[in-house]
Every structure is written in C-alpha cells, then in structure tokens.
Amino acid sequence: MMNAKPAVNVADLTVAYRDRPVLWDIDLQVPAGALMAVVGPNGAGKSTLLKAILGLVKPVAGMVELFGQPYRAVAKKIAYVPQRTSVDWDFPATVRDVVLMGTYGQLGWFRRPGQPQRKLADEALARMGMQDYANRQISQLSGGQQQRVFLARSLVQGAELFFMDEPFQGVDATTEEVILKLLHELRNAGKTVVVVHHDLGTVRDYFDWVTLINVKKIASGQLSEVFTPENISQTYGHRALIANPSA
Q: Collapsing DSSP states into helix, strand and coil, what is residue 185?
C-alpha cells in the first residue's frame, strides 16, 4: 500500500559537468512502496540522477528529500547498489566480508561485526543463492555472482529505500531470475525500489512504475499510464526500437 508522503521527492534538480547540463530541472516523486524503473538512452543522466539523490554528485540547483528529510537524516534507511563495472573487484576480501560491510552503517566504523551480523550476512547470501561462496575471494566470482553479492550486502542494511544502478546489466539468466524475485519480494514487503534499467523490452514485465528521462524528465508515473509509445519515442527519438510497449 502506498503511503501519502513520497519516499523520494526531487524538485528543480540540475546537474552539470563542465557547464554542460547532464540533468536539467528534474521534478520527480517516487511513492513509498513503488518498484520504479528509470529508463533512457545512454548519456541521459540516469546514473547521475541516483548519485545526485544520494549526494554523491553535487547539483547546481535543486532539492532532494527522502521520506521528507535530507539524505543525511535518513541515511540508515537507504541502500545503494552501484554499477558492477564501477567496483574494484580485485580488492582482497571474501564474499562474506563484502556483505558484512553492509552492516557498518548500523554498527559504526569502529565496532567489529559480531555473531548477529554474521548471521544476517549468511541469511542474505542464502537468499541470493550465494551461501556456498561465502569464503571465496570476490575476484574469483563471475559477473552475475558478484552482482548477487552486492545485492546481499544491500539486504543486511535493513533499508526501506533501495537504489540500484543497472543490476541486470551483463548477468546470466539465473542471476536475472534471482534479482527479479528479490525486487518483487522487496516491493511486497513495502520497500521502495528505484532501478536504473536499460532493457525496454522487460520494463512492463518487471516494474510497476517508470520514469523516462533524457537530460530532462519526459514522464514519470504508473507504468500503465506513462510507458506509452509516444513517451518512449520522445525519450529515445528514432532509437526507440520496441514492438508496441502498450500491448
């Protein structure tokens, strides 16, 4: 059930790199409990939008509230899964170590994870089908397995709001099924999930809400209302190669 106050409220958000706008005057509301895809062509600003919401890049202008408050006030309620390609997978850590890093926000950096945290980590790994890899070095995993480890790390945070940047990118079919099941479980548990997604062909099957952007916001809302051929064409121009998305 959706709550009255949005989980994400963005107003007049503009981000520029070297005076070139990457996002321009974005207004966006994500209802609590939504499972939302953010879609658009390469260079549209999708990943930048997530980073700006999380304070990882500084906007030129605009306001961001999460659950009606600034990010810092609710940081413990937020989980972020970055693009897998942005992570140094040669870092010497085991799978369990990486997942345990998700507990640091609750513990603080100067307390070591104990048995309760290790139990949470092992439960999250089991949920992602990775329990047999707990002692493996992360560099030894396949791309899909690495993605599942990062998702397990987000689960132990006990978050209410999840941001995921291209979690389906470059993964195998088994991992894709595991991720999709997780997204629906989170939605059904009342969590809010915002996912940067690249595959127009699966948006209708995977998500309930969608935001289409190409530097500017083209449309945002319930999928049945805004994921239309007209909005997709406006977002992608002549590159919108999808067979009747409203069917």
A: helix
